[in-house]
Amino acid sequence: MHAIRFQFIVPQGSYCIRHHPYLIINKINLMNATLHPKSIIYPNRYGISRVITYDWRQVYLKFFLLLFVSLFFIAMSALGQGPCPGANCNSGDIRITKVELLNADGTVLPNTCTAGSSIPVMLRVTFDVTSNERYGFLVNAGVLINNNSVGTIATCNPATFAQGLHTMDISQYVNGNPILWPCGSTIQLRDVYTAWDQQLATPQHAGICTFMNPSSGAVSDCSTIAPKCKFYGATEPILIVAPLIASFTSEEGSCSNLKRTWTFTSTTTGGVTPYTYTWNFGDGTPALVTTQNPVTHEYAYGVSGNVNVTLSVEDAASPTHHISATLPQTISVTSCCTASTDPTVASAVQSAICTGGSTNISVTGGSLGTGAVWKWYVGGCANGSSVGTGPTISVSPTVTTTYYVRAEGDCGNTTCASVTVTVKTPSSAPTGASAISPIFVQDKVQT
């Protein structure tokens, strides 16, 4: 370690230093420089000195900032101990393993209900006594629905609990109001404080339940209880197992290759995650079983209008998985393809022509859908030979011919209309002339 030496030169004459105002100020500055030097000459092992510069204001600022943060976290950790802030509640003698949601009468909730409807419920707390017998069990916790605080529960059972699993039912808040659960919402306990005793209550030894005020949930004499307690802080919320209720949203998307894309997002609640989803998209395609969420589906151009989509969900509860009721939802699919309509009639400008002549034939009525054209055939509707496309074509048949026309496009084909063009046979030039019989002329004799 190297010693740091500070050397200062001051004016001689104590009178000047003690009484001259200018020198008094210099003396004060000198004392500050001595106590808080901005630069320190520090020689290293090789005798090479370097100057280290300090800004003592920054040092003090960092020190007080660190002190403030430390005190803040200490205070927050104390506040996070529920009714016993600062208590040493980390024992593992009793652990909450599960909290279930039941009807207020203790029966199982149905897995179908109207979303948002309020249902009176009971919380069944399952806890595991991991050590030998424990005496009494106290619970104090905040209840949150959809992450919003709705009340506090506080109860205590003075019974003796042997090693193993036990349950405790809670059906109201500390203010006496019943616990109401909006169907489909998430419900959880937060800042859960639990306590117990290691010996039986006697006239000389008060039981654990005597420390709790049942009307407010307040716990007294926390120092006596600790460390026979366990606190589940903000990082240990207890999600209450609610009924598995399937729900989903649907959204129509764009077209691709004449197929309409839809996105389906499960908003299922309850049960135990992860979920397995079974989708039926209502268009005759096989059901989709997946763990992915959301999912997309493409509807072919032939599917349009109302389509019934269903979802059922299986959870990961142990030992038996729960399966939700099947949820139907009707969606309206907009086809990416406009179908053509049947032509009304086909006609010719001249229905009869001479050999070597021509005429225009046209289609009337009907409409063309997506990517469709009018297509003309001879020899049969679509099973003959194609002779042209368009609403009007020119033809020059050599014999009487029937023409067929229909719309053909991306969204299918229509029925055919037909028109017949007659070809008239021309006259041929005579090759000669002849009499059928001779004519005799009788001579007259004049007198």
Helix content: 10-25%
The level 1 CATH classification of the largest domain is: Mainly Beta
Average pLDDT confidence is 83
Task: Tell me the CATH topology of the largest domain.
Answer: Immunoglobulin-like
CATH architecture name of the largest domain: Sandwich
**Mind describing the biggest β-sheet?**
6 strands, mixed
The assigned structural class equals mainly beta
In whole angstroms, the N-to-C terminal distance is 189 Å
Beta-strand portion reads 35-45%
Q: Point out poorly predicted stretches.
A: 1-36, 48-52, 69-80
General shape: rod-shaped
Q: What's the total count of β strands?
A: 27
Q: Cα-atom Rg, whole angstroms?
A: 49 Å
- Helix count? 4
Please indicate the count of domains.
Answer: 4
Characterise this structure.
The protein is mainly beta and 447 residues long. The chain folds into four domains: 14-54, no CATH class; 94-239, Immunoglobulin-like; 248-333, Immunoglobulin-like, CATH 2.60.40; 345-424, Immunoglobulin-like. It is built from four helices and 27 strands. The chain has helices at 14-19, 21-35, 56-79, 222-225, and strands spanning 39-43, 49-53, 94-103, 118-129, 134-145, 148-161, 164-170, 180-182, 187-197, 229-232, 238-239, 248-256, 259-266, 276-280, 288-290, 295-299, 305-314, 327-333, 345-348, 352-354, 359-364, 373-378, 385-389, 392-395, 401-409, 412-413, 417-424. The strands form seven sheets. Strands 20, 22, 23, 25, 26 and 27 form a six-stranded mixed sheet that branches. Strands 5, 6, 9, 10 and 11 form a five-stranded antiparallel sheet that branches.
